[in-house]
């Protein structure tokens, strides 16, 4: 058989979309030979036609908690990936109660990255899909199960320059914020290049601008409120450069990130008088941060290796004016943080129910804090070296429609790790869990977690900072006073022991398309717990009387809020999550009189997921392909064909750097696509694959090379995958009966053949439909208790006996919803905090504090003017205008004492001095 034209080979890539190729090596993907619907890494210039699943999606036996495709992302109206991550927080936040490990574990195209800085400034238009997975998936990437996993799939070809200007101010005035940002991003099959410059400036907000008065003891001064800031004057300048290079031949990829940040702030704490001269009490902070990160990914035989490093140096100076003399005190800190992590993921053992997934991780971290304070005779130096190693093993016990399939799919997960800390010695951890899918739409998880955790070096060694004249409510006297609050580190902290349970259920609702309902129950027990920032309360003063200073008359003078160790804590949390997305309105009919589905043009998996028949389930339909090809090739040679007939990824391959069709690429595609030999040669490929057994020798070299292992032999799993894809198409010739996508498990499983969303971008083009999304999470705190010593009293924080963190509400809710239609968008963000209480001391004059519930709504209205006004060129193309209203209904939390009065320290104007907040955002892409 003669060598096929390049485009004919690209058509064979429809079948090859199930194989994890070299460019996607970092996915947690079992090579079990089952169709994963993942496109291959192809040679530059090759046009890829995909089915439901797009390259870079994470394939795992646990379904995602939430999924968002390109059209959903457009409905967010965000300016960067960082905005998108903030918007999906209801789904991406950890469900382990107070155990959340901060940000999720981030992947780009299924590949672990070195740092969030590497991609946070990318424009959201570069995203093809976002997937959110539960905490258990983090273990397979070498992380503890206290963070969810967010996988961001980028478009294969993208280029833009983005300029943005934000102007914001509260309704009541007194304060303003502006931000200017310039971003360059280019994505190709060979890598990514990104530069970003961001400048953010905020003006100060003083107490007098919110109607406060503060009597002064200085002669001639009646009110110090103009010299006391509720919000400091601040400036932040940040520059970022990111570079990613992928080697298509070896599948290796290298990424580099460099970030430089300068932050300045100025706060006022009142007035001082020295020698008859009156001047403001200022606190001036300056922080310079230099960060570098890198990552390297590649395969080593049957193992996928990922190596990351992240180096951060932060230099901080805080100047605090002295109250009773000229000059100021100076607190300086110099922090080095170096984090290195290596993981190896492989599938060394085959069991009847599938392959055993194994992850080895090794980490070497180093952190050093040097701090000096003119109020102390000696400086503080603390250094920690952390060496960690761990292993995670996922063992398939039963497989749906396979071994023990009567019970569905069942997987057991085990992990163990140890670490040696230079300042704490050896610490250990282990987890064990079960992941069970009794049906395709229901997934259940149970996990036991035991960990030893050292306090952070910052908790041990932060420099001491005294803040003067801080408004505080005295729970003993019931008065509001101005006290000195001390923060910093505590070198006497102990290592914490955690013993937790987590149970979860993830149900894809059969009666509501593209909707998932998540329930999580977390039971957390800990001993020797570090409370990083204790808050003042009657319970706190009772537990730590040496941390509170009172005058001879009992008046509150000072509070020491440096970290403390708690003997034991216990909490139980129940959370519910609902995530849904879909279309609004009727889709326009395509040129052939058939409605375009979510998957894209007919003939390329554009029908309803899991549907049988031509074009269904993401299968390749030759008849519908011929129809599309005929229309594309009917255009005169002197004119550009109608590219809207092509799938999104085809169109992207034909675009130049300016976003317009490249005449050379279009002509080359026409020459190959419209050749009379193209269809004949592709039929020859199908004939060779779909016989039983396949005629390997009749395959073209380009395909045969992709089927081979490193030793030159044909990989039977890859062969089965490509055969499954092509030979399931209508009319294909094969020895057995073609199986539909649904029979392969393509209907509801999240990782294996689950709905992949919109592989060709927003709706396969502008088909006249709108898009909506809703993400809702509600958490209920069932228990939250603290015990300070063995046999000592138990403090119930839900009942107001709070040691740290302020009043603890029983109910919290987070909502994100959006709608995007015809270039116009609406996004609503809602937060709800339930009622709570802080108990007083019970002594005469003391008072309880009662916190009312609070619901706030943020609104963002935006218009992509080029799309809304149908301007495909000129200045309006890529221009977006956004109007922002935060705290739309000006909600304020009401805090009252036992007599119903609002203490000055809890005045709503202090709790939220900004209130209702307006902004305008101008954004232009070139």
Key features?
disordered N terminus, 926 residues, 15 helices, five-stranded mixed beta sheet, single chain, mainly beta
Structure description:
With 926 residues, the chain is mainly beta. Among the domains are: 174 residues, no CATH class; 137 residues, no CATH class. The chain contains 15 helices and 37 strands. The strands form five sheets. It has a 22-stranded antiparallel barrel. A five-stranded mixed β-sheet has the order 1-4-5-2-3. The radius of gyration is 30 Å and the shape is globular. InterPro entries: Beta-barrel_TonB_sf, Plug_dom_sf. This is TonB-dependent receptor.
List the helices and strands and how they pair.
Blueprint: H1 6-16, E1 66-69, H2 70-76, H3 81-87, H4 89-92, E2 105-108, E3 111-112, E4 127-133, H5 135-139, E5 149-154, E6 158-170, E7 177-188, E8 191-202, E9 205-206, E10 229-231, E11 233-246, E12 253-274, E13 277-300, E14 303-321, E15 328-351, E16 354-373, E17 380-398, E18 409-421, E19 425-439, E20 442-453, H6 457-461, E21 465-473, E22 480-487, E23 496-508, E24 515-531, H7 538-543, E25 548-550, E26 556-560, E27 564-584, H8 622-633, H9 648-653, H10 663-673, H11 676-690, H12 701-707, H13 716-727, E28 770-787, E29 794-796, E30 811-821, E31 824-833, E32 836-838, E33 849-851, E34 854-864, H14 865-868, E35 879-886, E36 895-897, H15 908-911, E37 917-925
Parallel strand pairs: 2-5, 22-26
Antiparallel strand pairs: 1-4, 2-3, 4-5, 6-7, 6-37, 7-8, 8-11, 9-10, 11-12, 12-13, 13-14, 14-15, 15-16, 16-17, 17-18, 18-19, 19-20, 20-23, 21-22, 23-24, 24-27, 25-26, 27-28, 28-29, 28-30, 30-31, 31-34, 32-33, 33-36, 34-35, 35-37
Helix pairs in contact: 1-11, 1-13
Keywords: Cell outer membrane, Membrane, Signal
Biased composition (Gly residues): 590-620, 744-766
Organism: Qipengyuania soli
């Amino acid at each position: 058989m003669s060598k096929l034209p390049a485009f004919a080979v690209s058509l064979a890539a429809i079948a090859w979309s199930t194989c994890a190729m070299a460019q996607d090596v970092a996915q947690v993907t079992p090579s079990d030979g089952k169709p994963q619907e993942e496109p291959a890494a192809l040679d530059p210039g090759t046009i890829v036609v995909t089915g439901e699943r797009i390259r870079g999606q994470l394939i795992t036996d646990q379904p995602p908690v939430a999924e968002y495709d390109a059209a959903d992302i457009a409905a967010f109206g965000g300016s960067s990936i960082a905005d998108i991550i903030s918007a999906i927080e209801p789904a991406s936040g950890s469900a382990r109660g107070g155990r959340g490990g901060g940000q999720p574990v981030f992947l780009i195209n299924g590949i672990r990255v070195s740092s969030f800085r590497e991609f946070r400034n990318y424009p959201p238009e570069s995203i093809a899909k976002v997937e959110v997975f539960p905490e258990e998936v983090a273990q397979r990437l070498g992380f503890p199960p206290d963070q969810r996993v967010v996988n961001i799939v980028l478009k294969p070809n993208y280029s833009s320059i983005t300029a943005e200007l934000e102007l914001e101010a509260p309704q009541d005035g007194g304060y303003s914020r502006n931000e200017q940002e310039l971003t360059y991003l280019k994505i190709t099959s060979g890598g990514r290049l990104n530069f970003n410059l961001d400048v953010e400036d905020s003006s100060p907000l003083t107490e007098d601008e919110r109607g406060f008065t503060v009597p002064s003891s200085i002669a001639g001064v009646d009110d110090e409120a103009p010299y006391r800031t509720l919000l400091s004057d601040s400036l932040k300048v940040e520059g970022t450069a990111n570079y990613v290079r992928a080697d298509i031949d070896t599948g290796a990829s290298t990424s580099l990130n460099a970030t430089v940040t300068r932050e300045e702030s100025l706060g006022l704490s009142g007035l001082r008088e020295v020698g008859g001269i009156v001047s403001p009490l200022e606190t001036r902070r300056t922080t310079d941060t230099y960060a570098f990160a890198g990552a390297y990914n590649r395969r080593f035989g049957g193992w996928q290796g990922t190596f990351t490093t992240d180096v951060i140096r932060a230099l901080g100076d805080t100047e605090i004016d002295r109250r009773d003399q000229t000059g100021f005190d100076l607190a300086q800190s110099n922090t080095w943080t170096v984090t290195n992590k290596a993981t190896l993921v492989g599938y060394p053992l085959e069991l009847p129910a599938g392959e055993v997934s194994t992850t080895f991780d090794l980490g070497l971290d180093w952190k050093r804090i040097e701090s000096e304070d003119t109020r102390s005779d000696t400086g503080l130096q603390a250094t920690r070296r952390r060496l960690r190693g761990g292993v995670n093993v996922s063992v398939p016990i039963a497989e749906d429609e396979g071994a023990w399939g009567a019970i569905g799919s069942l997987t057991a997960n085990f992990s163990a790790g140890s670490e040696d800390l230079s300042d704490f010695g050896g610490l250990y951890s282990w987890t064990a869990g079960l992941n069970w899918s009794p049906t395709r739409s229901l997934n259940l998880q149970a996990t036991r977690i035991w960990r030893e955790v050292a306090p952070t070096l910052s908790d041990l060694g932060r420099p001491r900072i005294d803040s003067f004249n801080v408004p505080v409510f005295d729970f003993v006297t019931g008065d509001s006073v101005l006290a000195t609050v001390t923060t910093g580190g505590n070198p006497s902290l102990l290592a914490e022991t955690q013993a937790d349970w987590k149970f979860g259920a993830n149900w894809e609702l059969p009666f509501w398309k593209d909707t998932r309902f998540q329930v999580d129950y977390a039971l957390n027990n800990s001993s020797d717990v570090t409370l990083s920032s204790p808050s003042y309360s009657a319970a706190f003063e009772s537990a730590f009387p040496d941390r509170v200073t009172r005058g001879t008359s009992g008046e509150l003078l000072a509070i020491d809020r440096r970290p403390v160790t708690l003997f034991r804590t216990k909490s139980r949390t129940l959370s519910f999550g609902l995530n849904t997305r879909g279309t609004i309105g009727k889709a326009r009919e395509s040129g052939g009189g058939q409605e375009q589905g979510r998957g894209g043009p007919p003939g390329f998996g554009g029908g309803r997921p899991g549907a049988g028949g031509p074009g269904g389930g993401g299968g390749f339909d030759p008849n519908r392909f011929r129809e599309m090809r005929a229309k594309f090739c009917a255009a005169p040679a002197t004119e550009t064909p109608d590219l809207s007939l092509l799938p999104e990824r085809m169109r992207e391959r034909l675009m130049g750097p300016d976003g317009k069709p490249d005449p050379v690429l279009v002509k080359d595609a026409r020459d190959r696509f419209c050749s009379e030999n193209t269809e004949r040669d592709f039929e020859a490929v199908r004939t060779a694959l779909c016989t039983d057994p396949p005629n390997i020798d009749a395959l073209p070299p380009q395909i045969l090379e992709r089927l081979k292992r490193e030793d030159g032999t044909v990989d039977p799993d890859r062969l089965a995958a490509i055969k499954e894809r092509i030979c399931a198409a209508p009319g294909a010739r094969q020895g057995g009966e073609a199986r539909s996508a649904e029979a392969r498990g393509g209907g509801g499983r999240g990782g294996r053949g689950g709905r992949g969303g919109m592989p060709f971008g927003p709706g396969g083009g502008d088909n006249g439909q709108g898009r909506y999304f809703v993400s809702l999470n509600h958490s209920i705190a069932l228990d939250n208790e603290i015990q300070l010593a063995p046999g000592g009293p138990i403090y119930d924080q839900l009942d107001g006996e709070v040691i740290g963190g302020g009043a603890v509400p029983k109910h919290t809710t987070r909502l994100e919803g959006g709608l995007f239609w015809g270039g116009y968008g609406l996004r609503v963000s809602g937060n709800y905090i339930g009622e709570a209480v802080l108990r007083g001391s019970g002594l005469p004059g003391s008072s309880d504090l009662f916190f009312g519930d609070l619901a706030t709504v943020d609104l963002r209205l935006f218009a992509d003017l080029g799309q809304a006004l149908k301007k495909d060129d000129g200045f309006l193309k890529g221009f977006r205008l956004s109007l922002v209203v935060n705290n739309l209904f000006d909600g304020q939390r009401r805090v009252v004492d036992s007599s119903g009065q609002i203490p000055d320290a809890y005045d709503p104007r202090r709790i939220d001095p900004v209130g209702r907040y307006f902004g305008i955002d101008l954004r232009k892409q070139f």
